[in-house]
Design a protein that fits this description.
single chain; about 90 residues; alpha+beta; 5 helices
Length: about 90
């Protein structure tokens, strides 16, 4: 699935542009710390934690907060979209 199609699917499922950008950035990097993600996206770590919590609640990412530093990993887009379509 190309980025434009994935972006359209994610927007259709109610993600904000920043949430989509965060998820796509994570997909590019696989797994990242909140600090790294904040630096790449040009946002605060607090914002990254907030967005990643929302994305985790919706099944887009896994947050490993039992390790220091906290890492965030994107789940595969096909899995996410399939789950969202089934739930809709």
């Amino acid at each position: 699935m190309d980025d434009a199609t994935l972006r359209a699917h994610l927007r259709r499922f109610g993600l904000s542009e920043k949430e989509v950008d965060t998820y796509l950035t994570l997909l590019e990097h696989g797994e990242a710390t909140a600090s790294t993600l904040a630096d790449i996206a040009g946002v605060s770590k607090r914002y990254v934690y907030s967005v990643s919590e929302t994305l985790a609640d919706r099944g887009f990412v896994e947050v490993s907060d039992h390790v220091v530093p906290t890492t965030i990993r994107a789940l595969p887009p096909e899995t996410v979209v399939d789950e969202l379509v089934r739930a809709a």
